[in-house]
Amino acid sequence: MMPTRRIKKINGIEYWYEDIPYYDKEKKQIRHKSKYLGRNVNGEPVRVRDALNSSENICPVSKPLKAYNYGELLPLQWITDELKIGEYLGDLFNGKERNMILSMVFNRIARPTAMYNLKTWYESSALSLKWPELPLKSQNISNLLSKVGDSDIPSTFMGKMFRNLGTKSTLIYDLTSFSSYSQMMNLLEYGYNRDGLDLPQINLSMIVDKEKGIPVMYDIYPGSIVDVTTLKNTIKKIKAYGVEDYTLVMDRGFFSKGDIEELLHEEVPFIMPAAMILKSVKQLMSSVQKDIESPEYLHKYNKKPIFVKPVTLEEKEFKINGYCFYDPKREIEEKNAFYSRIYDVKEKIEETAIPGWRKAGEVFKERAGYMASFYSWKQIDDHFKITIKKNAVSQRINRMGKFFLFYNGERGWMECLTV
């Protein structure tokens, strides 16, 4: 039984197949199987890959001339259309500038590169077909960015985002700093450096719409501006954008008398964990520990037991309500991690000799890091002898598994915990 070749026509295109007969012992009959040979090119089977590489077997017109990156841009273009970002930018820039900005944004997300390489990336992407001949040379990019930075365009854009997205519920607010050696940034100033660096910095604040999961506002300030001033300005801008009935969710970095007074003065609803920096907070924690495990405070969260006790923090300047949460499982996990860490750091400090040209105190602080307050030390020859401070450890252990959440407004414990 000899195989035969035949042509199949699929969607108007001809393909060669080899028909191979064989004997099926089970069914005791002749059967056939088909083997693909290639596309019909000039009466002969040619594999597609071979055809693409052969100028003899395929017409040059049907060869691909260039490949463009397209797939990585699809979700970005969809998000841009869904949030109407292109529309808002179109109100602020001419068409070419708008497309330049979107190209820069897409590149920064999909395949970050130096600005002088942006044109090369753009030419290899499908954007060069959608938005042809964009002037993406370094000088043009610098001029456009300068135009944005020296104007109120960012503020106007954020106002459009706020109003059209209907942002009005839960806003997550945070603040960070960026240090730099630059001599060209006029906002760089010396201030409290969170990283402990002796460098000027810029403060960046950002607000995220929790429900939509996207940033809706940012602002930059000189590094010397303190947090409470930044918070004041942020609250003013939110009001200016017409946002009402919102709740600010902040981390414990904002837990200070100044920030809390400002929030209460402006009648801003907020939810914020407490930092153990105020004497009144430490006293409240000591008081709560006496009966936090009382059955009346027992609840379940994510199918696990948790104790929740309503509390009130009183200062001379203000009074705020909150909850103390105690998670027994979290307490065990935190203790295990803490004990392991405190042992490892002690061992690390003791096992390595102190360099003769350095001060022992500086070396100790460097090796102990944020754990330094849990140790006392003395130098014996060129090594440390470390003692773990019982009282410091005891105070830290007593707080494990427990934390405060304070709020302004009407809030149940579950809302405070899950918002």
Automatic annotation (TrEMBL):
Name of the protein = Mobile element protein
Offer one example of a GO biological process linked to this entry.
DNA transposition
Q: Which organism is it from?
A: Methanosarcina siciliae HI350
Transmembrane intervals: none
Domain of life according to the entry:
Archaea
Any idea where the Transposase IS4-like domain is? Answer: 190-290
Q: Name one Pfam family in it.
A: DDE_Tnp_1
The protein's GO terms of the molecular function aspect are: DNA binding; transposase activity
